[in-house]
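Whiteboard transcription, Tuesday session. T.W. wrote the structure tokens on the left side:
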């Protein structure tokens, strides 16, 4: 291992990511729980990486290990590519603590109140918003507005749409004490924008469309050139106003009739489904691009893919023994770029992730819908003949 190389601290990385870090010219260190560490050590051919073990889902312990390890060994960057919100928050907190210059930008992007304040004061992506210190204050604001509203809370992932009193009651039953931010509802297509920043220069690496049904993700986002330019402009303006200098960021944008508006942003990689879709389209894992940029390379410019890719999640209500054969059959269908089983997480049950290509976004979505119907029919037929079994593997290409 090259001890003169810049160091990066990776949280529970795949072996592929460790190899990519070395290939980029970095010295990888890693942190994981005991099960992850044992699996890495036991895997043949795994690159050497120094890794303390820790209960990763214990936020305070993880934060302490990250900051202590980074300080003791002069590690300049911390990267996590998983989907656990608590781990992301620990990583972002540690990164801000280790670099005072990064603390302000991280806080601005993570806190919806701070983000909306800098945008509105800068005249960029202006959205009507009011702070609400308590749940009672949110109720008071909702009572004064007739239309739908969105409520956000610092430290809580996502936002909640309040269309009526029932929505408000459901949100209030599980809401943190406060403070909160209440915003106008933004109508229009939902787009996520991924960027890589180096020395304050922000490169847009992907724009992905989000839908609630059918093709949940479409890449590239079906936007006009004018819409793309507007989205790029507001995202870069946000990062400039926040003072964000280095690393990945994932920004949610709504393309409203009045132009693009920023909905949320985080100083992190895109969620795994978005990264899988972008990788299927470009042939390059986004986390490897981040590692190359942290090592000093210019952010990449991937050519626009020929055609469109759609991603959908297929249900596994109670898989039959034939499910692996059905999965393999889907994987060998024309136009399928990737299909695999995804284990259950805290937020989603076990499911199948399917990526389909089309010449246009509409064609990709239609092909995905046909394959979804085929999957459900075959699964229903299999379940009528047997029960039990699970999903362990899949086919990707």
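and on the right, the sequence the group agreed on:
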């Amino acid at each position: 291992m090259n001890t003169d190389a810049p160091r990066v601290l990776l949280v529970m990385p795949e072996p592929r990511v460790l190899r990519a870090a070395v290939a980029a010219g970095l010295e990888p260190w890693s942190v994981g729980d005991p099960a992850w560490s044992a699996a890495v050590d036991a895997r043949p051919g795994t690159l050497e990486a120094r890794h303390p073990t820790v209960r990763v889902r214990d936020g305070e312990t993880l934060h302490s290990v990250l900051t202590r390890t980074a300080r003791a060994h002069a590690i300049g960057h911390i990267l996590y590519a998983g989907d656990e919100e608590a781990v992301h928050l620990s990583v972002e907190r540690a990164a801000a603590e280790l670099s005072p210059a990064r603390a302000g930008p991280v806080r601005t992007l993570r806190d919806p109140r701070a983000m909306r304040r800098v945008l509105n004061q800068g005249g960029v992506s202006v959205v009507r918003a009011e702070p609400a210190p308590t749940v009672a204050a949110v109720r008071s604001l909702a009572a004064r507005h007739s239309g739908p509203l969105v409520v956000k809370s610092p430290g809580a992932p996502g936002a909640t749409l309040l269309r009526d009193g029932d929505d408000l009651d459901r949100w209030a039953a599980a809401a943190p004490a406060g403070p909160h931010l209440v915003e106008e509802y933004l109508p229009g297509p939902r787009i996520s924008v991924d960027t890589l920043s180096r020395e304050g220069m922000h490169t847009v690496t992907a724009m992905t469309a989000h839908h609630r049904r059918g093709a949940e993700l479409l890449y590239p986002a079906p936007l006009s050139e004018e819409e793309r330019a507007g989205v790029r402009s507001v995202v870069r303006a946000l990062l400039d106003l926040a003072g964000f200098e280095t690393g990945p960021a994932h920004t949610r944008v709504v393309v409203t009739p009045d132009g693009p508006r920023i909905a949320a942003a985080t100083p992190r990689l895109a969620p795994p489904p978005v990264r899988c879709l972008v990788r299927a389209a470009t042939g390059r894992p986004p986390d490897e691009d981040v590692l190359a940029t942290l090592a000093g390379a210019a952010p990449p410019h991937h050519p626009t893919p020929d055609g469109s890719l759609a991603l959908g999640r297929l249900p596994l209500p109670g898989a039959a023994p034939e499910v692996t054969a059905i999965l393999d059959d889907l994987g060998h269908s024309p136009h399928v770029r990737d299909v695999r089983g995804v284990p259950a997480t805290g937020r989603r049950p076990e499911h199948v992730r399917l990526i389909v290509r089309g010449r246009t976004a509409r064609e990709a979505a239609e092909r995905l819908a046909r394959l979804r119907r085929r999957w459900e029919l075959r699964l229903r037929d299999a379940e009528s003949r047997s029960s039990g079994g699970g999903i362990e593997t899949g086919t990707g290409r």
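Someone added at the bottom: Confidence is low (pLDDT under 50) at residues 389-393.
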